[in-house]
Amino acid sequence: MKFKKVFSLVLTIVLAFLILNVSMVKAQVGTPKLVVSSVYWGVNPAMPSTASPGDKGVTLSVVIVNAGDDFARDVKGTLMIQHPFSYEYRFSSENSSSAEFVTNGSITKPAGDIAAGRSFTFQYTLNIAQNASEGIYKLLFKLTYRSARLLSEATDTFYIDVPIWKGELHIQSVITNPAKVYPGDTQVTLTVFIVNSGLGSVNNLKVFLELNEPFKQSSTSSNEAFIGTIKPTQATQARFLIDIDEKAKPGNYPLNLYGFEGSNKYLIGLVSFIIAEKANFIIVEAKPTSFQAGDLGIPVKITLKNNGSVKGESVRVKLLAGNYFSGTLTDFLGTINPGESKTALFLVDVDGKTPPNSYTVDLRIEWIQDEGYNLNDTLPITINVTWQYSTVIIAAILAVIVVAIFLFILKRKGIHLKKPI
Which CATH superfamily hosts domain 34-164? Predict the structure, then answer.
């Protein structure tokens, strides 16, 4: 009886010790716990970047932390891809290699073993569609791992926030070269400064300046410019070459500046373009306008009037008359105020071989305006040239006429001249 009691007591102590030992072993085996701590674009958490529509090869970093108390073994991170995101999948065969962009699929990256309290950063290289909308996208992210207690693989699922920001372009300032632009100016350089005030980049940017009368492009595509990428807060410039019609009226003209990102077209803003007024010269009188071939030193007076509202200084005029005309063909008129008229004097020689005809000659006017701008204009004048007959020819013609009249009178009177024997 005593033996049974002693045996029962020993058995109870042994069982208690075994149970206590198992509990202690169990307490010593921890559990891993993986969580997503942060998500950012780029590779430097201290200086994260942004992602925008049209970006290629941008890095999305996903940071995970083992918040448990044991190793997470054979950790893998799988990012589920959906529009507007894609990734480049490369594959090769015996003779070639190629790549394709996958928009519906997944990317799995290994992380190995992660100790308790440690972190790991998964990095995924992605492309973003050009037509992507701005906003926060939720992508499915899966973590698979093993632990000392879990013989089978465990999976934790998360939805991570992935932001896409668009750029926002504004016209910062506009300058022209020359600083003042007048009707008739050509090859004018228009520089537009553009700033990105948005949160995202603008990619593959081409800008287009819409030109209507009185403007036109100086050469093919001189109203277009390719810029490429403008990052947030970055400023850039676009240069255009344009011509202004001679008949343009002074004033402030708003020009539409458009941006193109792929097939997406949008208005960036209005470019303020100012055309300044210049002195407006007209020909009030020109005399004479008829000449004879061989004329020498013929005084020609041309009266100019400033029909504009600004004065022209150091006005100089020149008669561009061609090869048949020479002489003193320039004159200096000085300052011509608004509404004032002045007369230029030329001494014109006409080549004796000049064919009789009507000729259009140009009066070129050059002047200084607005404290240093050299301007010019050209006005047409029509002149007529006839033959110049000598006095001998005229006398011979008159003699023939007199003889003809004399013979006619004699014939009427019946008088016949005797022929000499």
Answer: Immunoglobulins (2.60.40.10)
Residue 408's H or E segment, with its range, is: helix 391-413
Q: Do domains 34-164 and 281-386 have the same CATH topology?
A: yes
Q: How far apart are CA 396 and CA 333, in angstroms?
A: 47
Please list, in sequence order, all residues whose beta carbon lies within 8 angstroms of the beta carbon of residue 375, skipping any fewer than 6 positions away.
Answer: 182, 278, 279, 312, 366, 367, 368, 369
192 token code pair: 């537009």
Residue 47 vs residue 140, higher pLDDT: 140
Residue 86 and residue 103: Cα distance in Å, rounded?
4
CB atoms inside a 10 Å sphere around CB 241: 15
Say if residue 16's pLDDT is above 90.
Answer: no
Handedness of CA 4, 6, 9, 13 (dihedral sign): negative
Q: In this structure, is the dihedral angle defined by the CA atoms of residues 287, 293, 299 and 302, taken in order, positive or negative? A: positive
**DSSP category for residue 323:** T
Q: Are 352 and 291 in contact (CB under 8 A)?
A: no
pTM score of the predicted model: 0.68
Taking only the tens place, the pLDDT of each residue in 351-400 is 988 999 999 999 999 999 988 899 999 999 999 999 876 544 555 677 77
> Is the predicted pLDDT of residue 148 greater than 60, yes or no?
yes
Domain boundaries defined on the chain: 34-164, 169-275, 281-386
Distance CA 20, CA 282 (A): 117
* Architecture of the 169-275 domain: Sandwich (2.60)
Cβ-proximal residues to 48 (8 Å cutoff; 6+ apart), any chain: 40, 41, 42
Residue with tokens 């400033």: 306
- Taking the CA atoms of residue 286, residue 288, residue 292 and residue 297 in that order, the dihedral angle to the nearest 10 degrees is -90
Per the CB < 8 A criterion, the answer to whether 72 and 114 are in contact is yes
Give CATH superfamily name and number for 281-386. Answer: Immunoglobulins (2.60.40.10)
